[in-house]
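Entry 12.
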Amino acid sequence: MDKDRMARLWRDTSALSYVRVGGTDEETRAAGQIEALLGETGARVWQEPFEIPFFEIDRAALCAGEEIPCAAVRFSGTTGAEGICAPFACVGDAKPEELEGARGKIVLCQEMLTLERWRSLLEAGVAGVITLTGSVIDDTNLVRMAPALVKEAHRREGNIPAVQICARDAVRLAQRKPETVTLCLQARTVKRLSRNVVCELPGASRPEEMIVFTAHYDSVANSRGACDNAAGSAALLETVRYFAAHAPQRTMRFVFTGSEERGLLGSRAYVEAHEDELGRMVLEVNVDMGGATLGTNKIFVTADDGLRCLARAMADETGYLCDVTQDTYSSDSIPFADSGVPAINFARIATPGTLTVHNWQDSLEWMSPEPLAEMTDFLIAFVARLDGAKRFPVEQEIPDNVREKIAAYLKRKPY
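Predicted 3D structure (tokens):
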């Protein structure tokens, strides 16, 4: 990639690196930025809005003799204005044996609220939940830490009011062992609009076959989302520019998805709205996370192993250093692969301790344009090679071993 294109790639990443949570004005602003940039390519561009639930928080408070700074666990249960006062207990990671005698108590759970753990807490009859974020060496400012939410599948099981505190305060609370704590969470769930931004380049010789690309442009709360996923959105913008100037043989559709961080809501909405086109889709290409200065390039193939072999061979041929595995990836490829569309994911995973996503540390400070340019160049070259084939060289059936992995993922993290 030449210096001018690399500078543009970095400029696009920087321009999208601000908090832009699904369903907010900031997400709408980012969608407008992307639409304007796509319009410059001459491609046909449009937006597809979809409804999402949104948790509007009025008050979150926790008191154990003194106020403890806390944040609401979004989409958990709520309390009245006075909150609930109940006995306090530490329940480790909420195994059944740790929850004995927890009925009616407000409990400190030291692990993330997975669906299985949520079920255990409901079955135990706890009155409220306190969870934690960060580490004891982190800044205690919750605004800079990863927010927590429970997914739709959790809510189907039942509601428990839950708040999140920083790890340092969680340790101190466990050390103090207060007899009672008071938890207050006043909020309401409303409907808001998120949107997918879509553009299409028609195929020159095989327009009936379609390659679909995705990259989510939203972020979690409390994160500027530079690596996750302003970088992926910028890489996809550069991909559009390339194929707008080098007409593809197959139709290419680029979907910049909203509300991915809320549980793949944008890609799920897109697949549901375009069910009649799934048979045309010969490949789904997803880009999620890129640009970390220190990190490892990854390719996750959610398709037949032949596609993994193709990616591995071309990476070796071109000298692109990466790990290539046949696996699922927690991103927008899942709804497509679950619907039978072969998928491939491009990512750069930061070295632990150097850049952390889903909090305030996901910033350009820990990133560099060169690795993002390398990933983008390989992505474009790989797809161009596949698109140029007379017969598309990707098996269209999702093999059983991959279907099992998709099923396991959806059970673990349903959207």
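Annotation: The mean pLDDT is 95. Residues 226-245 form the longest helix (20 residues).
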